[in-house]
Amino acid sequence: MAAREWLQSGTKVVLLGVGSFNPPTIMHLRMFELARNHLEKVFGCTVVEGIISPVADNYAKKNLASAIHRVEMARLAASTSDWIHADSWESSQKTWTRTLQVLKYHQDVARERHGAATRLMLVSGGDLVDSFPKILENGENLWHPNDISAIINDYGLIIVTRGISNPRETLGNLAFLKDTAERAQIISDEVCPCDVSSTRVRSAIQDGRSIKYAVLDPIIAYIQQHGLYR
């Protein structure tokens, strides 16, 4: 089924962004804005909501600030928008929750809130897609192939290219996605192309370098107030 047949004009869409948001940057907000613009301009959809969903504390990642701080920073970031908000459901879970489970939860909530025909879609940077084939040290897949197929087939994926990521090549090399690529829309930021990342922001803080305009001022103030990433 072609993407234009799958996404009907007027379809209500809720966008979900998952990740550490450690801290949230202007790039995270731009991804939501670009995805909404693409869906409304190209497919005639109506994007009714954007959700920032930080991971829980038990996600194994170095220098991960407490979920309490990351959720609050996500709320500060979303305060500049009238359609994006932060959600603490995923971050409050006692165990790490796979992205497919997070999508299933928010799909149910979205349909209760906006109607049964509402579609939930995942929005991500190209670097997340490049992690699809990654194999962990224990030999297991970071992403289950069935999960990737379900994310793209059952929900849909809007991918924003960034840095040296190559999501088109990554998806093309995954044989089990042969007939589903049209549901993974790849877009780029032609207005404000940048490669701001949370990793670089944390490094700058540790080195005493300025992060102004890479993250919002209220988030800078929050980081300073709580002494994060030092």
From TrEMBL:
Biological process according to GO: NAD+ biosynthetic process
SUPFAM superfamilies: Nucleotidylyl transferase
Class of this enzyme: transferase
GO annotations of cellular component type: mitochondrial matrix
GO MF annotations in UniProt: ATP binding; nicotinamide-nucleotide adenylyltransferase activity; nicotinate-nucleotide adenylyltransferase activity
Annotated compartments: Mitochondrion
UniProt keywords, alphabetically: ATP-binding, Mitochondrion, NAD, Nucleotide-binding, Nucleotidyltransferase, Pyridine nucleotide biosynthesis, Transferase
Catalytic activity, EC: 2.7.7.1, 2.7.7.18
Pathway: Cofactor biosynthesis; NAD(+) biosynthesis; NAD(+) from nicotinamide D-ribonucleotide: step 1/1
Any single Pfam family the record assigns to this protein: CTP_transf_like
Cytidyltransferase-like domain residues: 18-203
Family, as annotated: Belongs to the eukaryotic NMN adenylyltransferase family.
Record's protein name: Nicotinamide-nucleotide adenylyltransferase
Organismal lineage: Eukaryota, Metazoa, Ecdysozoa, Nematoda, Chromadorea
